[in-house]
Design goal:
Layout (H helix, E strand, L loop, with lengths): L15 E4 L6 E5 L2 E3 L4 E6 L2 E5 L2 E3 L3 E6 L7 E4 L4 E3 L9 E2 L15
Parallel strand pairs: 1-4, 2-5, 3-6, 4-7, 5-8, 6-9, 7-10
């Protein structure tokens, strides 16, 4: 995932994101690269995120975890993950910035 940009309102721009509502959600990212994201490389709203052998380069936030209603966020590090800029050579930082979840998409017609 490279060069993610915010939407026309200046929001978003994350490489990977997952949200738990109304049902539990999980995201696994393995052997991947996120480079030059506008906001978070990985954004987690009350879900379980597992990372392995993934490099997150040049983003405002490495890992952002936000609690969803009745659902705490969880990150599982399976090793080999690095962050930094211009190259991923450091331990990734986890923060909770108070970002709000994205707006839910309408249901698909069947």
């Amino acid at each position: 995932m490279r060069d993610t940009l915010p939407d026309t309102t200046g929001q978003y721009g994350d490489a990977f994101g997952v949200a738990t509502f109304p049902d539990p959600a999980e995201l696994t990212v393995t052997n991947s690269v996120a480079d030059a994201t506008s906001r978070a490389a990985v954004l987690n709203f009350g879900a379980k995120v597992t990372l392995q052998a993934t490099h997150l380069q040049c983003q405002l936030l490495d890992l952002d975890g936000e609690q969803a209603p009745n659902a705490p966020y969880q990150f599982v590090d399976q090793g080999g993950n690095l962050c930094g800029c211009p190259a991923a050579t450091e331990q990734c930082r986890l923060v909770s910035t108070g970002l709000g979840p994205p707006t839910a998409l309408p249901p698909l017609d069947e």
